[in-house]
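Suppose a classmate hands you a notebook page containing two proteins, each written out with its sequence and a corresponding row of structure tokens. How would you begin to make sense of it? This section walks through that situation. The first entry is reproduced here exactly as it would appear on such a page.
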Amino acid sequence: MKIAIIGAGPGGLYAALAAVKHNVQVDLFEKRNVGEGIVCGECIFDSLNIMKEPGRGLMHPVDEVVLQGRGCYAFPLGRHRKLWMLDRRSWQQELARCAARRGVALYEHTKITPARLLQMKKEYDWIIDASGAPSVTSRLNHFSNDYFKEYLLAHQVVLAGDFSSLWPRIKIVFLPDMPADYQPAYAWIFPKDTGRANVGVVCTVRGTLKKDKLDLKKLLVQTISKEGLDGAHVLERGSGMAVAGMLPRLVYDNIILAGDAAGLTSPLHGGGIDMACLSGVLAAGAVINGGRGVAAYHETLKRYTQEKLALEKVTIQKMKTLNFEQFDDLLGGITSKNFFARFRTAIKHLGMFYVTLKWFGTKKSIPDWPV
């Protein structure tokens, strides 16, 4: 069996490592050098509580998240789910070296065009498209617009400055006066160490975001100023998008979509490294098992994500419908150290409480991680 994988991000690398275990030919194509072109907070949020701790590239675990509304509230996330701060470039480069040692043929600086993909469909038994959003497959099959029906758009800078007062925590800043149409929207400050941090803003977009409606770059400048970071030095800049929902179709003939190409990023926070890794492993297992495995791939992903997505849906609805003072009260109640305050908040937001219990209480099967 010959398998081609497009994209050496987390999804493609995990797919390659999972597939090569079965003694099949695996060719992995990356349009840049592995680890380049990264625009994200560089955190892995283990939303399903199934991941192994990353190896090389792990900078530190994040046990506490600071949530800022009108006030600042500390949430002990580490008690419930694992969150790791990464140097993603180092992490992905180590995964690529591991894949090469195990027999994966890696082709960097090799861009797969729709025309080339059409040829590859004849050359390979299966193709796993983890090329991001919009995917190469979408350009070949004319569904690129599906990625832009609803998505999260982000602008980010990497800053050099003094982050010792926040590190090793991370901070989420909820934005007042943000129209419901752009929710969820927030800013983030994710220190990698005491001297560097990823700082960005994100909002939800349907179609095209017009600057006269909301200028994210201007909003990022304002956020940096409000957080007292005007003196920090900008090391890198970047923009990116994340699809706000799994695509309705994930298989096109002998092509199977994984990671961002499948729309597996969170509609709440835009993160998706854990889902990219999971989908890569599941996609590899699906093609190894042939037509029956591929046919079950989409439903398997749905079963993994249903409780997580239910909680995210309710949270997004709160962000859309509550005014800023009401949302701040919700943050304060959720994070309160007083049991009765948390209980009153749970009763007031009973639907949210229920889906949170389902998310925490539902154990997912741990996949056969290749690393």
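The notebook's second entry, a different protein, reads as follows.
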Amino acid sequence: APPCQSGGLHRVETLVSIARITSLHAIAATMHVTLARALYQAALSLVGLHLARRNAQHANEGLSPAHPRYNDAAALLGGGLAHAAKSRTVSRRWRDFVVEERCGDAFGELRKRWHCGRELARLGRRDPCQALEVLGGGGSKGAANRGLCFFVTRCGQYIIKQESSATLRTLDNVAKTYAARASVQGSLLPRLVGAYTVRSNTTTTHWLVMANTFAGAPKIKAVYDVKGSTAGRRTRPKKGTLKDLDARDDAAQLRCYGSGEVVEALSGDTRVLEQLRLLDYSLLVGVCEPGLFGGWRAARYKKRDRGTRMLVCRDRGFLVVGLIDVLQPWTWAKVAEYYCRGALRGWRRISAVPPVFYRRRFLAFVSRLLDT
């Protein structure tokens, strides 16, 4: 063929090759988009299936009318939480019960600050079977031994805990100071949002409503209750909430970044507790599994001011930390326990020690544990 014709054929073949390559790229891009959409739809289907299964499971775990505290819980909801949007201390009649709100002025201001009054009011207008379920494991061992009940709201945001009359008397004395410190940005004090006494002709029960420490956090795979004491503070090989000696054994997994800010916040919180002569509080530490969407959920959790702190572990994963059980005063019973039990187990090892020493030991243990 003449040179001019061969050059033209070469250009045509080149254009055909380019067209084929372009079409192949277009087909590949279309396939990628189609595959991405298919994966997205599959993910949505899996999430929907998970939520459906979870809701079906929760539907069978509601508070049963056969529960011994069902009527008290119903009175607490209808006569107490249903009016949580208001901020005053009053007594209300609900059927055959009288529901008295304790420290209503202090808690009313806190509910306004934390924007939870309307949410609690909506919860209070629901049926107990739909609003509450018995907390798995029944709460703490000590409370179970005293016959006290733990409920958790079906949304998982709040815990309703039956308390002794002595605990609520302590709260009456410290409520204003507690509210002043808990309202400070960055405080790790537990989010107490209400306290109530429910009376009938035959019974009187006392209840404390608080925010759930782990609400909204990624999946929790292990929980530690840290006091700083060592006497009787081991759970393994049994199952349940791990304690100080277990945390010491797992210290390599609990080292994290940013623990200095946590210790600083704890120092301010425990200084107030020391001034109020309170002790026996714990740092609740939840170890979160990163999971597929763990980083995204952790970022969402960090944005909300919920009285807890999320830390990034050095070996992957997250920690959620917050104070609990802050209403135990230094009473004569604790003084007797300090001398009697301390003589047997060691004064530095037991939990019942004077508030000044308790705070110092607690902060030192937490600092070493989180590797400040």
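A careful reader of the second entry would note: The longest strand covers residues 192-199.
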